[in-house]
Amino acid sequence: MTDHTPPALGYLRQYLSMTGDDLGLVKKQMQAFAEHKGFILGMVFVEQLHTDPAAFDALVTAANLREITVVIVPTRAHLSAVGRSETKMQRLERESGARALVADWSPP
Hints:
Number of strands: 4
């Protein structure tokens, strides 16, 4: 990667069934996906279910401050509804202009 590789942020919800090892594996998969797509994955915001949407709010703020255009997520489910009828994906796009990429690729 070069200094001109665009940055991306990550976001995921840590479900109750996820162990620390599971979380580490998901982050590695997100990293590999980001590199495959030509991005450098920076901070991964991890949402705890009991504090939702605190990490997501921090992600949106960081995306705006750093002018991030891409957020990597493990699956679409991590950006599901935040209340009312708006999803986190819609709010991310509306408030920051960033688009979400689902890490649906795994290295050979």
